[in-house]
TrEMBL record, chain B:
The chain crosses the membrane at residues 36-55, 67-84, 96-115, 121-140, 182-201. It is found in: Cytoplasmic vesicle, COPI-coated vesicle membrane; Endoplasmic reticulum membrane. The keyword Transmembrane helix applies. It comes from Oikopleura dioica (Tunicate). Keywords: Cytoplasmic vesicle, Endoplasmic reticulum, ER-Golgi transport, Membrane, Protein transport, Receptor, Transmembrane, Transmembrane helix, Transport. This is ER lumen protein-retaining receptor. GO terms for molecular function: ER retention sequence binding. Belongs to the ERD2 family. GO terms for cellular component: COPI-coated vesicle membrane; endoplasmic reticulum membrane. One of its GO terms (biological process) is protein retention in ER lumen. PROSITE patterns: ER_LUMEN_RECEPTOR_2. It is a multi-pass membrane protein.
């Protein structure tokens, strides 16, 4: 499951 | 990472710490909405679900921060619903949380960037966070007042997402990075604090207590 790189914030 | 996001995360950490200190020191969760804290715990768990799915080494601060957020919010719920349950003001904490959870879940299935489990959970967490403070604001409007320490908690909690808006402006301008869903929800979330911010700045800063007209 590739983490969506778009959401790189907490 | 930019200064706005750094101070936003610090403000968020401060809010969580202030609330924990308030409950632990006064050994009471009077004036604190347990529902809002439950909703925040759900937000963190659904947003950082990847921490559970594949273990990641705690080499970077982001992972550590996520674990701090999840454990602190779960611990806060434990204090409210178990340890200091006798001081929980259930009568005034009466906003129906389902009215926030169900629309957030429905909207997350309708408006998202990708229809897959992790992305839907992340979107749900963003939408839920935008409205999670409503039971707390509702409780204050019912009791007609807020303890000063609870006002500081709310100010730090509201400032965190307000600072994130500045972070998004910064990232749009310098990194042309845009996360529309997070931005729209973050703006809505911050708008909900506006009347509280007004009360906080006109009253609490002058040493008065927030008392709402009954």
């Amino acid at each position: 499951m590739i983490r969506n790189k778009q959401h790189d914030e907490l | 990472m930019n200064i706005f996001r750094l101070f936003g995360d610090l403000s968020h950490l401060a809010a969580i710490a202030i609330l924990l200190l308030k409950i632990w020191k006064t050994r009471s969760c009077a004036g604190v909405s347990g529902k809002t804290q439950l909703l925040f715990a759900v937000c963190f768990i659904t947003r950082y679900i990847d921490l559970f799915l594949h273990f990641v080494s705690l080499y970077n601060t982001e992972k550590v921060m996520k674990l701090i957020y999840i454990s602190a919010s779960v611990f806060t719920c434990y204090l409210i619903f178990f340890k200091f349950k006798a001081t929980y003001d259930g009568n005034h904490d009466s906003m129906r949380a389902e009215f926030l959870i169900v629309p957030a879940a429905g909207l997350a299935c309708l408006i998202n960037t990708k229809f897959d489990a992790i992305e839907i959970l992340w979107t749900f967490s963003i939408y839920l966070e935008a409205v999670a403070i409503l039971p707390q604001l509702f409780l204050i409007s019912k009791t007609g007042e807020a303890e000063t320490i609870t006002s500081h908690y709310l100010f730090a909690q509201g400032s965190y997402r307000a600072l994130y808006i500045l972070n998004w402006i910064y990232r749009y301008h310098y990194e042309s990075h845009v996360d529309t869903i997070a931005i729209v929800a973050g703006v809505v979330q911050t708008i909900l604090y506006c009347d509280f911010f007004y009360l906080y700045i006109t009253k609490v800063v002058k040493g008065q207590k927030i008392v709402l007209p009954a």
